[in-house]
Structure prediction request, 699 residues.
Amino acid sequence: MSLEMWSADEAAMTEAENVADSIARSGGNALFNDRPALQERLKVIHQTFHREVFIVDPQKRIIADSANADIGEVFQHDPESDPEYAVSKTLIDGKTRKFLKRKINSKTPINLLVVDIRKDGMDDNSPIVGAMVIEYTGVRDQLMAKALAANKLISILILVFLVATFFLARALGLSILVPVRNLRLAVNDFAAGNRSARVEVTSADEIGGLTLAFNRMADALNASDTRMQENDRTLAATALQLAEMNEQLQQEIEEHKRSNEQVEYLAYYDSLTGLPNRTMFSTILTRDLNQAERHDKQLGLLFIDLDQFKHVNDTIGHKTGDELLGEVAQRLKACLRKSDSCARLGGDEFVVLITEIEQDHQLESIARKINAALAQPFPLVGYEFFVTASIGICVYPEDGRDVSSLLKNAEIAMYHAKDEGKNNFQFYSEKMNRNSLLRFALEASLRTALGNNEFSLAYQAKVATRDNHIKGVEALLRWTHPELGPIGPAEFIPLAEATGLIVPIGRWVLHTACVQHAKWCEQGFPDLVMSVNLSARQLSDRSLLDDIAAVLDETGMNPALLELEITESIVIQDMEKALIKLNAIKALGVRLAMDDFGTGYSSLSIIKQLPLDTIKIDRAFIRDMPSDIDANAITTAIIAMCSALGLSVVAEGVETREQVDFLKGLACDEIQGFYFSKPVNADAFYALLASHAFEEVAA
Prediction:
């Protein structure tokens, strides 16, 4: 009987230890990181299995309690019921212990088991971070009751068996001894813990009945064990589910944290270069301005814009262009001190803030350093690319005392650097601001000039060297401002290009020139070739071909007498697209000429690919002829090349008799310049056509 009692006690302890381990060892230190989830798990155990469970930290403070009663209190040790100090010792050596706890108003103590909680769960070498105390009195009492019942039943069976044996021994003899012995052995074997021990029923008498009762008892106990194991598995599954839920919750928290960090980063930093964006830079500049004002110091602001980056971007693609911007950002940072700041405002615009200016030439040195760094080749996609930068510089407090003023004035200085030829830096001055205001006023006036009939055309003759007759004429745009008077093309044409107004203006020029050509044809000059300049924005305009076809149809002009002039820079920006558009123009029967040849990027291979009829040699080569040997050699080579390719050649900017004679000697086809005529209005040009004679005009 004592053996069965001991077995029941051990079984109850083992079951409690398994339950505790399934929780304590599966969570480890994570048990202490989510107290609400831990408390809920203990509550589930209490409600499901009706047992007391609580967890203490190394100071024996109760951090979770299945009954929500003692959370926050220190576990009180009872020396009478627990002389071994089980909880304290387990917190030290990690060994599992059992002890008793007396309940108030109850003479019967409850059985408790204490299990250590390791920092890393199942790792027995990790530090002890707490202990779990779990009650197993209920399970023990159940098992004890079953053991007592089994013992009573066995005792009764044995007693009955002995009495029956005593009275029936003589009658039954050896036929009874064997079944009884088998039953006794099975009973002893079962009592020793062999739950599979069974006895074969060989008769329907009392021994058979006892044997059947024994087998049924064994089956009932096994069924009870199975239910307990299922309960253990359910508890383990619940613990695993709670652990998975806890892990998922942690992942969601981390993901939410990362998302917030990403949103905050994108709000204040440029995702392409990693530099502060405009918003963040305004905050930085505001902070440094306040410090500079407080300590009476100067600040320097450099506004940096890459030159012709659009051309680079269109050539190598936006993805590679983005890589180039990233490299530019790295080079800019390498030029600065840790105390300075760099930001990307957008596109190809960067800004640099220099703090603690000690010497006047410090900003100039930094600007030169930046220009030199950016001038180095950028190795991308197997090629070396070159970019330059225009830099505008302003100084706090001389050039502005707030963020808006400093950025605006630095940008004005940057545009002045571009006007000065790019790849340089300029300091802001009040004169620049005035020029900027003038540029703004011109832009505003330019938008209304076409509707107000402020534009006109001037015409300059192109003379054949063979017989001095006018073979063609170039239409040149002129603008007379109602208040400022005549404004030169060099001043308003770039502005029209930048604003996109060149497209409607160019459409007007083409129409006006073709209408005038029709008048001259009616006046007896039907073979005159009319030349009209074509800008880059016009060439990329989708309606260009329709505009050309419409004006030819309206005026009845022979397409072969219309010649559109393009520059080398227009073609080189996007060779593939330019070829498509030029071939489409050529298909209309219109002539094509390359203006200002020799000063751009064209090579013989490019010239050969283009559907050109005429090459116009830039005035830069004609100006120093015939005294400049190099200019003579270049002009000679161009004329020889064009002759070999079957192209007509026009020399621009001819102003002296010596230049005329030299060009005739080279067999140049046509000459254009002040030597024959300045650009004149339509009536004056008609008079020139009618006279068939030219006076030498001084330059």
Notes: The CA atoms of residues 205 and 402 lie 112 Å apart. Residues 278-428 form a domain with the Alpha-Beta Plaits fold (CATH 3.30.70.270).
